[in-house]
Specification:
Elements (H helix, E strand, L loop, with lengths): L2 H9 L4 H22 L2 H18 L8 H20 L6 H10 L6 H4 L3 H14 L2 H11 L5 H8 L3 H22 L4
Protein backbone atom coordinates (compact mmCIF):
# COMPACT_ATOMS: atom_id res chain seq x y z
CA UNK A 1 0.00 0.00 0.00
CA UNK A 2 1.24 3.51 -0.81
CA UNK A 3 2.31 5.77 2.05
CA UNK A 4 -0.30 8.40 1.19
CA UNK A 5 -3.05 5.81 1.55
CA UNK A 6 -1.66 4.63 4.89
CA UNK A 7 -1.57 8.23 6.11
CA UNK A 8 -5.17 8.67 4.96
CA UNK A 9 -6.11 5.64 7.06
CA UNK A 10 -4.58 7.32 10.12
CA UNK A 11 -6.51 10.50 9.36
CA UNK A 12 -9.71 8.48 8.95
CA UNK A 13 -8.92 6.84 12.34
CA UNK A 14 -9.09 3.46 10.61
CA UNK A 15 -7.32 0.84 12.74
CA UNK A 16 -6.09 -0.95 9.62
CA UNK A 17 -3.54 1.89 9.38
CA UNK A 18 -1.53 0.14 12.06
CA UNK A 19 -1.61 -3.26 10.37
CA UNK A 20 -0.64 -1.68 7.03
CA UNK A 21 2.19 0.20 8.74
CA UNK A 22 3.34 -3.02 10.36
CA UNK A 23 3.27 -4.90 7.06
CA UNK A 24 5.21 -2.24 5.19
CA UNK A 25 7.62 -0.94 7.84
CA UNK A 26 7.62 -3.41 10.75
CA UNK A 27 10.91 -5.10 9.88
CA UNK A 28 12.62 -1.79 9.14
CA UNK A 29 11.47 -0.23 12.42
CA UNK A 30 12.54 -3.31 14.36
CA UNK A 31 16.01 -3.00 12.84
CA UNK A 32 16.21 0.69 13.77
CA UNK A 33 15.19 -0.08 17.35
CA UNK A 34 17.48 -3.12 17.63
CA UNK A 35 20.52 -1.14 16.43
CA UNK A 36 20.03 1.15 19.41
CA UNK A 37 18.70 -1.23 22.07
CA UNK A 38 20.46 -4.50 21.18
CA UNK A 39 17.51 -6.42 22.55
CA UNK A 40 14.84 -8.20 20.50
CA UNK A 41 12.26 -7.93 23.25
CA UNK A 42 12.82 -4.20 23.84
CA UNK A 43 12.87 -3.56 20.11
CA UNK A 44 9.50 -5.23 19.63
CA UNK A 45 8.02 -3.15 22.46
CA UNK A 46 9.42 0.08 21.02
CA UNK A 47 8.00 -0.74 17.58
CA UNK A 48 4.57 -1.31 19.13
CA UNK A 49 4.92 2.02 20.90
CA UNK A 50 5.89 3.56 17.55
CA UNK A 51 2.54 2.51 16.07
CA UNK A 52 0.77 4.15 19.02
CA UNK A 53 2.93 7.25 18.60
CA UNK A 54 2.03 7.46 14.92
CA UNK A 55 -1.65 6.97 15.76
CA UNK A 56 -1.52 9.81 18.28
CA UNK A 57 0.47 12.14 16.00
CA UNK A 58 -1.69 11.76 12.88
CA UNK A 59 -3.72 13.93 12.72
CA UNK A 60 -2.78 16.74 13.02
CA UNK A 61 0.72 15.98 11.71
CA UNK A 62 0.85 14.81 8.11
CA UNK A 63 4.31 13.45 7.36
CA UNK A 64 5.74 13.97 3.90
CA UNK A 65 7.89 10.83 4.25
CA UNK A 66 6.17 8.17 6.35
CA UNK A 67 9.26 5.95 6.63
CA UNK A 68 11.37 8.81 8.04
CA UNK A 69 8.54 9.93 10.32
CA UNK A 70 8.18 6.43 11.78
CA UNK A 71 11.94 5.95 12.10
CA UNK A 72 12.19 9.23 14.03
CA UNK A 73 9.51 8.05 16.48
CA UNK A 74 11.27 4.68 16.84
CA UNK A 75 14.68 6.28 17.42
CA UNK A 76 13.31 8.73 19.99
CA UNK A 77 11.51 5.96 21.87
CA UNK A 78 14.59 3.74 21.72
CA UNK A 79 16.87 6.42 23.11
CA UNK A 80 14.34 7.19 25.85
CA UNK A 81 14.32 3.50 26.79
CA UNK A 82 18.12 3.43 26.88
CA UNK A 83 18.16 6.57 29.01
CA UNK A 84 15.62 5.09 31.38
CA UNK A 85 17.44 1.77 31.61
CA UNK A 86 20.84 3.33 32.10
CA UNK A 87 20.38 6.16 34.53
CA UNK A 88 23.69 5.30 36.19
CA UNK A 89 25.64 3.63 33.38
CA UNK A 90 26.70 4.52 29.91
CA UNK A 91 25.13 2.50 27.12
CA UNK A 92 26.17 1.87 23.53
CA UNK A 93 24.03 4.65 22.06
CA UNK A 94 25.32 7.21 24.57
CA UNK A 95 28.87 6.39 23.54
CA UNK A 96 27.94 6.86 19.88
CA UNK A 97 26.50 10.31 20.56
CA UNK A 98 29.47 11.22 22.75
CA UNK A 99 31.75 10.75 19.74
CA UNK A 100 29.99 13.68 18.08
CA UNK A 101 29.97 15.82 21.21
CA UNK A 102 33.44 17.19 20.49
CA UNK A 103 32.06 18.78 17.30
CA UNK A 104 29.24 20.74 18.93
CA UNK A 105 29.33 23.59 21.42
CA UNK A 106 28.47 22.12 24.82
CA UNK A 107 25.93 24.80 25.76
CA UNK A 108 23.84 25.35 22.65
CA UNK A 109 20.88 26.66 24.62
CA UNK A 110 22.97 29.49 26.02
CA UNK A 111 23.74 30.49 22.43
CA UNK A 112 20.06 30.06 21.53
CA UNK A 113 20.91 28.12 18.38
CA UNK A 114 17.80 26.64 16.85
CA UNK A 115 17.73 22.95 16.06
CA UNK A 116 16.87 23.71 12.44
CA UNK A 117 20.11 25.62 11.94
CA UNK A 118 22.14 22.73 13.29
CA UNK A 119 20.16 20.32 11.15
CA UNK A 120 20.82 22.47 8.08
CA UNK A 121 24.54 22.52 8.84
CA UNK A 122 24.65 18.74 9.34
CA UNK A 123 22.71 18.13 6.14
CA UNK A 124 25.07 20.43 4.26
CA UNK A 125 28.00 18.44 5.62
CA UNK A 126 26.41 15.12 4.66
CA UNK A 127 25.77 16.39 1.12
CA UNK A 128 29.48 17.19 0.79
CA UNK A 129 30.45 13.56 1.51
CA UNK A 130 30.81 10.80 -1.05
CA UNK A 131 27.97 8.29 -1.12
CA UNK A 132 30.14 5.73 0.68
CA UNK A 133 31.29 8.12 3.40
CA UNK A 134 27.74 9.37 3.91
CA UNK A 135 26.49 5.78 4.23
CA UNK A 136 29.20 4.98 6.80
CA UNK A 137 28.46 8.16 8.76
CA UNK A 138 24.72 7.48 8.85
CA UNK A 139 25.26 3.82 9.71
CA UNK A 140 27.22 4.91 12.78
CA UNK A 141 25.40 8.03 13.94
CA UNK A 142 21.86 7.44 12.76
CA UNK A 143 21.50 3.66 12.87
CA UNK A 144 24.03 3.22 15.72
CA UNK A 145 25.84 0.30 14.11
CA UNK A 146 29.20 -0.68 15.60
CA UNK A 147 32.37 -0.17 13.57
CA UNK A 148 32.57 -3.94 13.07
CA UNK A 149 28.99 -4.09 11.77
CA UNK A 150 29.66 -1.21 9.38
CA UNK A 151 32.84 -2.87 8.14
CA UNK A 152 31.00 -6.11 7.53
CA UNK A 153 28.13 -4.34 5.79
CA UNK A 154 30.37 -2.37 3.43
CA UNK A 155 33.21 -4.86 3.01
CA UNK A 156 35.96 -2.87 4.72
CA UNK A 157 37.99 -3.49 7.84
CA UNK A 158 36.86 -2.26 11.23
CA UNK A 159 40.09 -0.27 11.39
CA UNK A 160 39.23 1.46 8.10
CA UNK A 161 35.77 2.36 9.42
CA UNK A 162 37.30 3.79 12.59
CA UNK A 163 39.74 5.84 10.51
CA UNK A 164 37.02 7.13 8.16
CA UNK A 165 34.77 8.14 11.05
CA UNK A 166 37.63 9.92 12.78
CA UNK A 167 38.42 11.92 9.62
CA UNK A 168 34.74 12.70 9.06
CA UNK A 169 34.36 13.95 12.65
CA UNK A 170 37.40 16.21 12.16
CA UNK A 171 35.90 17.64 8.96
CA UNK A 172 32.51 18.00 10.60
CA UNK A 173 34.10 19.90 13.46
CA UNK A 174 35.67 22.33 10.98
CA UNK A 175 32.38 22.70 9.05
CA UNK A 176 30.38 23.30 12.22
CA UNK A 177 33.06 25.73 13.41
CA UNK A 178 32.54 27.74 10.24
CA UNK A 179 28.81 27.75 11.00
CA UNK A 180 29.37 28.85 14.60
CA UNK A 181 28.50 25.53 16.26
CA UNK A 182 31.85 23.94 17.06
CA UNK A 183 33.82 24.24 20.27
Amino acid sequence: MEDERIIDLYFDRDESAISETKMKYGAYLTTVAYNILRSNEDSEEVVLDTYLGAWNAMPPEKPSLLRVFLARITRNLSFKRVEYASAKKREHSDAVLDELEECITPDLTALEVEARELSRALNGYLESLSNFDCAVFLARYYYCLTNAEIGEKYGVSERRVKYLLSKMRQKLKVKLGEEGFAV
